[in-house]
Write a structure and sequence with these properties.
By secondary structure, this protein is of the alpha+beta class. The chain is about 15% helix and about 20% strand. A hairpin with a 5-residue loop joins β1 (about 5-10) and β2. The structure holds zinc ion (ZN).
Length: about 70
């Protein structure tokens, strides 16, 4: 069951909630359902890791030091 982080649009309370597909979370402070879903810590970490520069190398595709074609795939 995923944990999502929400920010309440009514009172700006931020909280984490276990969310089932058939239920809607509500603000623990004011019980509003006007919520904005935030990126979870896990999702933020994963996206920043995949965005790291890994294309800098002689091959241009895999970064093999012997140049294009040396890796056997490019
Ligand atoms: Zn609220």
């Amino acid at each position: 069951m995923p944990i999502y982080e929400y920010a309440c649009k009514d009172c700006a309370q931020q909280f984490e909630a276990l969310v089932r597909s058939d239920s809607t979370p509500e603000c623990p402070n004011c019980h509003s359902s006007q919520l904005e879903k935030l990126l979870s810590v896990f999702a933020t970490t994963a996206s920043s890791a995949s965005a790291a520069p890994v294309m800098a190398g002689p091959c241009g595709s895999c970064g093999h030091p012997d140049g294009p074609g040396a890796c056997g795939f490019h």
